[in-house]
Amino acid sequence: MSAWARISLGLAAFLFVAGAVHWATSDDHVGGSLMIISAAGFTYLGLYVRRTIRRAAAVEAEHEELPEPHVGPTIWPFVFSLGAIALALGAIIGPWLLAIGGVVSAIAAVGWFVDVGRQWGHGE
């Protein structure tokens, strides 16, 4: 695993634990929620970096020159931004919007991850 993936996943674990402790021991639930949201973002980045490094190592091991993969247009970045807006507003307005933003962001993250993987695997 690369250093970037380890750093991202380590930060994610720290922020998740810190957010859970903050949420459980404080009357301020916004800070804990924001730390857990940040943990989810670092988890996504860490898993994406780990997947990319493994793919590059597999291609290098085959000693095969593949064309640079092109990721076509996709709706997931837009959906991700809507989820992020709902998360930010949910931290201010109320927990129900925070939950909706979390679900939308999670769906967008998985959809984008799968879509990019499918487009990269299409050339094989």
Write a brief structural summary.
By secondary structure, this protein is mostly helical. The chain is built from four helices and no strands.
Distance between the termini: 24 Å
**Total helical segments:** 4
Strand residue content: under 5%
| Alpha-beta content class | mainly alpha
Number of strands: 0
Q: Give helix and strand order, one letter per element, not per position.
A: HHHH
Radius of gyration: 17 Å
Instruction: Name the shape in a single word.
Output: flat
Q: In total, how many domains does the architecture comprise?
A: 2
Task: Tell me roughly what share of residues is in helical segments.
Answer: over 70%
Sheet of most strands: none
Mean pLDDT: 82
List segments where confidence is low: pLDDT < 50 over at least 5 consecutive residues: none
